[in-house]
């Protein structure tokens, strides 16, 4: 008997798992929960919140939410639409009255707003009448076992509760935890001819537009440690976007990289054979835009990421698929509770990639059907657009720092998407999506704006300034920060030109230009210096303030400096000044577009 | 039941932050056993300090010799012996149902002195319609809450497609079709509730990351926090700066010399000479997973003996 045989009975065994993921962890956790529920004859549908038809939410039988936390304590963007729908004040208290639900949050206790999106979600659902059947779970990256530390016991509890609410029908037993789970797909041999009909699935997604590379220029000095690029893309169609909107790009692994990887995996012989992907386990997620018929080469290039840092469950699969005793022993060690620290040191701390691990575990042979179980999906990356379409019609410009850093591993770590972007040449094409950002411009052009965007945070600030100058708006102030006036002052000549034409006020902090021993200056220090003017703009001029860039310490420090200006020159108490800022945020006059 | 001796006022109510009605009447339920060992009296005196307390014996409720008035109590406190909780099991659903009825909406139920029963009670409570507020293992107590509005039937998962209407209390219920409409139709002008106001003080309490003193000897699980105050970040930075690179001379006796990382040219020479080096323990070429802590090849990829080890040193230190 299969779970679908029970669809006619009174008790529902249908379960919807909605995940909101940032880096794929929530998605992976959702898949894991679904596999466990399957053992007690629950049939799950696993979906990203932004792929779900939200009007159906009120008709569901049972929902599990799996929700990550962004660097600034906000919900992942894929959840924002649903969250906005839930926050409406006109929803009745009994809206979800018959709806049982549970929430598992993913977060990091090193951050103050630990699992806040998950906490808010569970409280809101309860306030709308939904029935929380299981205490909220809160996974913590800081736990020795990472998220799994909380996820495993939480899922056990959930299964117990589900069995109480919906006992197994007669004749059906709980499936024991298997040695090797079934693969989520089967790759069936297909005729090469079917491949030619294969489309780039992004082609048929109207949200993605064909972009041609016009420029890919390094804008930091050649001898500077960081490689920051200014990229320009042109479009055939009239793509429209607003300041602060976000370009969505799926990276593609380099040909040579994929070639050598296939070689290491001993898959070169079948790399270009055509396969039809048949989904076996419908409760496990698959990469976005997956074509029906494809090759292993294409899968490793576009749809799965062998350069990702693996999770614990990856090592579990290695254990299943190795034949060597030494490797088995090592993997058993890594997977034991006592070995958790060692695994962390070996893999997560030094950012060792899947590919690098597979080279060391040479006897692991992964059956191709398990490709989506072992390799994480290739995720799209998001970049704030650095241009205004009004000044650059049919064009999108980006300002992107190439991700490259060192850990204890001798080979430097490189970003998957920035590696892809770094080698793009004029006339190369790709498909780019556009997503709404948080930024909105004041409806009245005469309202002053203050833009604070150090480093690559200057990208959306450039889009704001371009649009405002185009519209003839008067008061525009830009606070920029970087390390060196001559090495990494992004778009410095443009700002100078605007200043010369009296279109903006430009204040820049160069943190490493001061001599050794002198305190470094950052944007927040400039704001403090300009406190009186800041108050004039905000308190008297009703200025809108934008903060963009790293979500680490910068936004907090900037807001402190703003609050200080409001306190000293606005005549408010320290507490009231903070409240003033909070009000500004609520009114939509203080907008943050920050990323971790 | 009046105490025959003086007892210390024990603070038997665990501290739980949750919206609760102002201190209305509390119901304290005990048994002859907990009356004898004093637990019941301490419970009652503790409560009486701040509110009116009514008292009941477990047996009278379970035998239905007494029924509770609906929505009468803002909190119910139960203290029994572990054995009594055990033997209550078969009657637990109806007992909890009674307590549910007797509690006001948002009223709290405190189950004390639980021991092993603490494992099984949460799901029973949920089935009876309660929300679990806290499970306090240290105090052997569970605190649950009656939701703001009544659910008259115990919960089970109803399939929407065969929906039998759930019987309701005297309350105006929003019509399902209207609910769907309200949910699905969005108007940009509808104001939003304050999401942050949803959070309780407990929700907002800043988590304390576990910062044990750094032990330099063992493998470290915890990465330094972004706002590191315990010195781990500095230690990590030190380590990265001073980590050595190997310069191999490739002879049979495999001498490996360590040099500082800033010596760029020697680094490149080291990588070039790597193929000539042989491993003495047999594990070095396998990769970091199998290397010992003092292996000079740590951080280098796995290689086959004789194979060239290539490293991109295109990036300067920063």
UniProtKB/TrEMBL annotation, chain A:
Residues bound to NADP(+): 456, 511-512, 520-524
SUPFAM superfamilies, alphabetized: Ferredoxin reductase-like, C-terminal NADP-linked domain, Flavoproteins, Riboflavin synthase domain-like
EC number: 1.18.1.-
GO cellular component labels: cytosol; mitochondrion
GO MF annotation list: flavin adenine dinucleotide binding; FMN binding; NADP binding; NADPH-iron-sulfur [2Fe-2S] protein oxidoreductase activity; oxidoreductase activity, acting on NAD(P)H
Location in the cell: Cytoplasm; Mitochondrion
Stretches assigned to the FAD-binding FR-type domain: 206-442
Catalytic activity: 2 oxidized [2Fe-2S]-[protein] + NADPH = 2 reduced [2Fe-2S]-[protein] + NADP(+) + H(+)
Highest taxon of the lineage: Eukaryota
Binding-site residues, FAD: 351, 381-384, 415-418, 595
GO biological process: iron-sulfur cluster assembly
InterPro entries (alphabetical): CysJ-like_FAD-binding (IPR003097), FAD-bd_FR_type (IPR017927), Flavdoxin-like (IPR001094), Flavodoxin/NO_synth (IPR008254), Flavoprot_Pyr_Nucl_cyt_Rdtase (IPR001709), Flavoprotein-like_sf (IPR029039), FNR_nucleotide-bd (IPR039261), NADPH_Cyt_P450_Rdtase_alpha (IPR023173)
Limits of the Flavodoxin-like domain: 15-159
Transmembrane regions listed in the UniProt entry: none
Keywords, comma-separated and alphabetical: Cytoplasm, FAD, Flavoprotein, FMN, Mitochondrion, NADP, Oxidoreductase
Pfam family for this entry, one: FAD_binding_1
Family of the protein in this entry: In the C-terminal section; belongs to the flavoprotein pyridine nucleotide cytochrome reductase family. Belongs to the NADPH-dependent diflavin oxidoreductase NDOR1 family.
The name this protein goes by in its record: NADPH-dependent diflavin oxidoreductase 1
Organism expressing this protein natively: Crucibulum laeve
From TrEMBL, chain B:
Family note: Belongs to the anamorsin family.
Cellular compartments per GO CC: mitochondrial intermembrane space
Cofactor(s) annotated in UniProt: [2Fe-2S] cluster; [4Fe-4S] cluster
Motif Cx2C motif 1 mapped to chain: 281-284
Note on domains (UniProt): The C-terminal domain binds 2 Fe-S clusters but is otherwise mostly in an intrinsically disordered conformation.
Entry keyword Transferase: no
Gene Ontology MF terms: 2 iron, 2 sulfur cluster binding; 4 iron, 4 sulfur cluster binding; electron transfer activity; metal ion binding
Name the record gives this protein: Fe-S cluster assembly protein DRE2
Organism annotation: Crucibulum laeve
Keywords tagged on the record: 2Fe-2S, 4Fe-4S, Cytoplasm, Iron, Iron-sulfur, Metal-binding, Mitochondrion
Domain of life: Eukaryota
Start and end residues of each stretch annotated as Fe-S binding site B: 281-295
Predominant place of localization: cytoplasm
Domain Fe-S cluster assembly protein Dre2 N-terminal: residue ranges: 41-132
Annotated [4Fe-4S] cluster binding sites: 281, 284, 292, 295
């Amino acid at each position: 008997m299969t779970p679908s045989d029970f669809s006619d009975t009174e008790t529902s065994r249908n379960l919807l798992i909605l995940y909101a993921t940032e880096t794929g962890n929530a998605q992976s956790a959702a898949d894991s929960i679904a596999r466990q529920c399957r053992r007690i004859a629950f049939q799950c549908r696993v979906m990203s919140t932004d792929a779900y038809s939200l009007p159906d939410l009120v008709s569901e039988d049972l929902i599990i939410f799996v929700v990550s936390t962004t660097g600034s304590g906000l919900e992942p963007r894929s959840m924002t639409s649903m969250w906005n729908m839930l926050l409406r004040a006109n929803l009745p208290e009994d809206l979800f009255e018959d709806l049982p639900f549970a929430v598992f949050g993913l977060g990091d206790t090193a951050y103050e707003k630990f699992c806040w999106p998950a906490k808010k979600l569970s409280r809101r659902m309860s306030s709308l009448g939904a029935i929380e059947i299981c205490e909220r779970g809160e996974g913590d990256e800081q736990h020795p076992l990472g998220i799994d530390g909380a996820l495993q016991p939480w899922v056990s509890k959930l299964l117990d509760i589900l069995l109480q609410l919906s006992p197994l029908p007669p004749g059906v037993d709980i499936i024991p935890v298997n040695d090797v789970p079934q693969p989520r797909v089967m790759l069936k041999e297909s005729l090469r001819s079917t491949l030619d009909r294969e489309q780039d699935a992004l082609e048929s997604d109207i949200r993605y537009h064909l972009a041609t590379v016009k420029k890919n220029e390094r804008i930091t000095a050649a001898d500077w440690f960081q490689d920051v690029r200014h990229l320009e893309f042109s479009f055939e169609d009239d793509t429209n976007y607003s300041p602060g909107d976000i370009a969505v790009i799926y990276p593609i692994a380099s040909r040579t990289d994929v070639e050598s990887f296939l070689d290491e995996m001993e898959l070169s012989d079948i790399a270009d054979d055509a396969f039809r992907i048949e989904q076996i386990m419908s409760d496990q997620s698959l990469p976005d835009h997956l074509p029906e018929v494809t090759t292993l080469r294409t899968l490793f290039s576009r749809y799965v990421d062998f350069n990702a840092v693996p999770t614990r469950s990856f090592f579990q699969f290695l254990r299943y698929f190795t034949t060597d005793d030494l490797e088995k022993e090592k993997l058993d060690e890594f997977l034991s509770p006592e070995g958790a620290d060692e695994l962390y040191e070996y893999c997560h701390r030094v950012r060792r990639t899947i590919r690098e691990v597979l080279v060391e575990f040479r006897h692991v042979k992964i059956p191709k059907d398990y490709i989506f179980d072992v390799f994480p999906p290739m995720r799209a990356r998001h970049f704030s657009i650095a241009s205004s379409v009004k000044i650059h019609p049919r064009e999108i410009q980006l300002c992107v720092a190439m991700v490259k850093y060192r850990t204890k591993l001798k080979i430097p770590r490189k970003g998957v998407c920035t590696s892809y972007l770094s080698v793009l040449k004029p006339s190369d094409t790709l498909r780019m999506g556009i997503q709404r950002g948080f930024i909105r411009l004041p409806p009245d052009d005469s309202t002053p704006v203050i833009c604070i965007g150090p480093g690559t945070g200057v990208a959306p600030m450039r889009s704001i300034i371009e649009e405002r100058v185009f519209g003839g708006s008067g008061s525009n102030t830009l606070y920029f920060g970087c390390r060196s006036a001559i090495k990494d002052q992004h778009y410095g000549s443009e700002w100078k030109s605007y200043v010369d034409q009296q279109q903006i006020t430009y204040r820049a902090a160069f943190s490493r230009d001061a001599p050794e021993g002198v305190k470094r200056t950052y944007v927040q220090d400039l704001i403090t210096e300009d406190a009186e003017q800041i108050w004039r703009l905000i308190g008297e001029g009703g200025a809108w303030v934008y903060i963009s860039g790293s979500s680490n310490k910068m936004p907090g420090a900037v807001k402190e400096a703003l609050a200080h200006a409001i306190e000293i020159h606005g005549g408010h108490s320290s507490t009231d000044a903070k409240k003033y800022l909070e009000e500004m945020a609520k009114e939509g006059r203080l907008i943050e577009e920050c990323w971790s | 039941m009046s105490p025959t001796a003086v007892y210390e006022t024990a603070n038997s109510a665990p501290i739980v932050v949750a919206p609760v009605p102002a201190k209305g009447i509390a119901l304290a339920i005990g048994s002859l056993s907990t009356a004898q060992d004093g637990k019941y009296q301490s419970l009652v005196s503790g409560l009486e300090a701040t509110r009116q307390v009514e008292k009941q014996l477990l047996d009278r409720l379970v035998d239905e010799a007494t029924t509770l008035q609906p929505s009468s109590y803002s909190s119910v406190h139960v203290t029994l012996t572990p054995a009594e909780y055990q033997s209550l099991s078969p009657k637990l659903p109806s007992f909890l149902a009674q307590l549910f009825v007797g509690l006001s909406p948002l009223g709290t139920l405190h189950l004390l002195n639980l021991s092993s029963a603490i494992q099984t009670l949460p799901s029973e409570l949920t089935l009876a319609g309660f929300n679990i507020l806290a499970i306090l293992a240290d105090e052997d107590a569970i605190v649950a809450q009656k939701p703001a509005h009544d659910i008259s039937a115990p919960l089970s998962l109803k399939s929407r497609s065969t929906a039998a209407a759930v019987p309701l209390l005297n309350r105006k219920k929003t019509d399902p079709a209207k609910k769907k409409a309200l949910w699905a139709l969005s108007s940009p002008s509808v104001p939003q509730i304050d999401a942050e106001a949803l959070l309780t003080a407990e929700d907002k309490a800043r988590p304390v990351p576990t910062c044990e003193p750094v032990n330099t000897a063992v493998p470290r699980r915890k990465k330094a926090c972004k706002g590191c105050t315990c010195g781990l970040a500095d230690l990590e930075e030190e380590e990265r700066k001073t980590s050595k690179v190997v310069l191999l001379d490739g002879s049979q006796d495999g001498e490996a010399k360590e040099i500082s990382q800033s010596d760029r040219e020697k680094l490149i020479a080291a990588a070039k000479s790597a193929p000539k080096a042989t491993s003495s323990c047999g594990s070095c070429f396998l990769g970091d997973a199998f290397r010992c802590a003092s292996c000079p090849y740590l951080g280098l990829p796995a290689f086959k003996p004789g194979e060239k080890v290539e490293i991109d040193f295109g990036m300067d230190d920063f």
